[in-house]
Specification:
Blueprint: H1 2-25, H2 31-35, E1 37-48, E2 51-53, E3 61-66, E4 71-77, H3 93-99, H4 102-110, E5 112-122, E6 127-135, E7 144-152, E8 155-161, E9 167-173
Antiparallel strand pairs: 1-2, 1-3, 1-9, 3-4, 4-5, 5-6, 6-7, 7-8, 8-9
């Protein structure tokens, strides 16, 4: 009987230690670990010279993917981009390029943003740093983008200000 009590107490002690150790091990992840994954764009607002606008409309589409190895890809799109007059759905990419006027490509590009590269986090000031290695707009390539991070539950807010003073506030959700 005593042996059973001692084993029972040892079991309770082990469970208590495991619970304490588990809560210590389940401590908050560092910010970079919390950001890893796929995020869906919910909204994006830009403010320039005191004027707020939504270049991609009130309901933009987009995805931001941040992987654990430090690579990212992001695409954003206006919901109602105009279709090309030449229906290239059944053709090849070369057919689409050949048959679509430059003006239509320009309109499509104005309503679409895409870039990829390397990413990191400055944990001290909650900043996401993205190095743009490739982008739809070639002038962006080689630049670095820094955004202040606000992460509450499954909502990620990224706020940045360009050298020209334009402010961008994007909201993503898991």
């Amino acid at each position: 009987m005593k042996r059973h009590s001692i084993l029972g107490m040892s079991g309770v002690t082990l469970l208590a230690c495991a619970a304490l150790g588990g809560s210590a091990g389940a401590q908050q992840k560092v910010l970079k670990e919390q950001l890893v994954g796929a995020w869906t764009l919910f909204s994006i607002d830009e403010t320039a010279k005191g004027t707020k606008r939504q270049e991609l409309g009130a309901n933009p589409k987009g995805t931001l993917i941040l992987d654990a190895s430090g690579r990212y890809a992001e695409v954003r799109s206006k919901l109602d981009r105009p279709k090309f007059a030449a229906n290239g759905v059944m053709g090849t990419t070369a057919d689409i390029v050949r048959d679509t006027p430059a003006a239509e490509f320009g309109e499509a590009a104005r309503a679409f943003v895409a870039f990829f590269g390397a990413w990191s986090v400055n944990e001290a000031d909650n900043t996401l740093i993205r190095n743009l290695e490739g982008a739809l707009i070639p002038n962006s390539e080689g630049r670095q983008s820094k955004s202040a991070i606000s992460l509450v539950g499954d909502e990620l807010r990224l706020s940045s200000t360009s050298a020209s003073g334009e402010k961008s506030d994007a909201v993503y959700k898991r």
